[in-house]
Amino acid sequence: MWGIIATWRMAFDGVTVASQLLKEGVTVGDAIESAVRLVEDNPVYKSVGYGGLPNIQGAVQLDAAYMDGDTYQIGGVAGISDVKNPISVAKQLSKERFNSFLVGEGARDYAVLNGFDIQNMLTDRAKAEWEKRLKEVQKNQLNPYDGHDTVSMVGLDVSGSMATGTSSSGLFLKQPGRVGDSPLSGSGFYVDSEIGGAAATGLGEDLMKGCLSYEIVRLMKAGYTPQEACNQAVYDFDARLTKRNEKAGAFSLIAMDCNGAWGVATNVEFTFVVATENQRPTMYVAIPAEDNQTNIEPITEEWLEQQRKNPTVD
Ligand code: GLY
């Protein structure tokens, strides 16, 4: 069995490519890297890679991570600038015994030294949006923070290996040096090839409080299905966070187990993509439902048309 699940419908093309690779017997690590790179390279997506929205000073600082579910090797970069594909740097770092999680200049220097493509990641469109939003925030005293739609993926290949990858430009107008959940093991992602994996998108500051990716893998180890594990981890933590802080940020989790079964839970409307040996790449929309359940529906032409008229999610 092979399979892949990814956050947001922006991952559709990447999942389509990855599913073909997995079908041909390519390793899950390479399939996930290819899929995340496609999202990073597309300037249309404003929260990942090239075209990602900048921090308060107008600089694009990117976070990414990669984890190998066979070995537990993890590589991560945080606040990296001018590097075309942070996921590829993270994947290479996962092979390092030491210094496998690098930030800022150190991460950039590593990428330069190791021959990764360097480019200005700020597009004209992202710069214009930054200028506009900054003015609005200053004039209207608005909360500057929105847009934190990480691309996260979990996959399984025909040999039974699993891996996960994440990539994000983090919060729009974040403070310089701010790091979200995406490069943090246990919060943004976790995978064990003998159990399964989980990964996140949403407000990093709140995802970190619950270590939700690890919690979902722990629940799958205890015998929960991926869907039961996602529901249990997400809605329980959302309730506890709300009780203690009167609010919880938006967050959504995806999971796949070592048999290719998958699940999702979310506290907001959320789109995601799945492909398995038994299922061609399919876009879904998930919304929280009563009794700590998640409603999951395939995305219809009608839904897409509605989004085109009134876009609210990626
Ligand atoms: N989940 C991405 C972030 O908060 O930076």
Could you characterize what this model shows?
- The protein has helices at 12-23, 28-41, 86-93, 104-113, 124-140, 204-210, 212-221, 226-245, 301-309; strands at 3-7, 62-68, 74-80, 101-103, 151-156, 162-168, 189-192, 196-202, 251-257, 262-266, 270-276, 279-289, 293-298.
- The protein has 9 helices and 13 strands.
- Strands 4-3-2-6-5-1-11-12-13 form a 9-stranded mixed beta sheet. A 4-stranded antiparallel beta sheet has the order 7-8-9-10, with helices on one face.
- The radius of gyration is 18 Å and the shape is globular.
- It has a single domain, classed as 4-Layer Sandwich (Glutamine Phosphoribosylpyrophosphate, subunit 1, domain 1), CATH 3.60.20.
- 34% of the residues lie in helices and 26% in strands.
- β5 (151-156) and β6 form a beta hairpin.
- α1 runs antiparallel to α2 (28-41) and α2 (28-41) runs antiparallel to α3 (86-93).
- The model has no long low-confidence stretch (mean pLDDT 95).
- By secondary structure, the chain is α+β, with helices and mostly antiparallel strands.
- It binds glycine.
- Residues 148, 150, 168, 170-171, 180-182, 201-204 line the site of glycine.
